[in-house]
Amino acid sequence: PAIVAAQAVMNVLHGERYRVVPDEVKKYVCGYYGALPIPVAPDVMDRIVGNGSKDVPLEPPAREPVVPALRRRYPKLSDDELLLRYMYGDEKVDALVPAATDFSIELPLVELVAGLARMKQRRTVHVTGPGFELRAN
Asked: How far apart are CA 41 and CA 19, in angstroms?
């Protein structure tokens, strides 16, 4: 929708339909973003291709599927994290994810909370630390 809206604005600003065509519109109608839900009318396609950037080839480049390679590289990650790592890179994603996200690692606090959760009788727990406080009833 944003690409179509941008073209509509360009049509109004320049007083003529498809007189100025952003690269994204040309890429959209040429199939760079996948198959179109409905075909573009031939006369509209001619105007877009003719007035669009000459730097955008009519045929999108062939791309290899990336998901199988990502799944081999990161076999235990969720789809969301796979896509984040593909789009932003490991360094940026690692900066967002706390270092101890694998709770199978024996951490004293994790062991304490797990042990408290297994207790049948209710207890009040209050854990504090520098810049940290946890209260549970």
From this structure: 16
- Beta strands 125-129 and 132-136 are antiparallel
Q: Which two tokens stand for residue 92?
A: 């940026």
C-alpha triplet 82, 87, 88: angle, nearest 5° = 100
Residues 6 or more apart in contact with residue 133 via CB below 8 angstroms: 126, 127
Query: Model's pTM, two decimal places?
Result: 0.52
44 with 7: CB under 8 angstroms?
Answer: no
In tens, the pLDDT along 63-103 reads 888 889 999 999 988 888 898 889 899 888 888 766 555 55
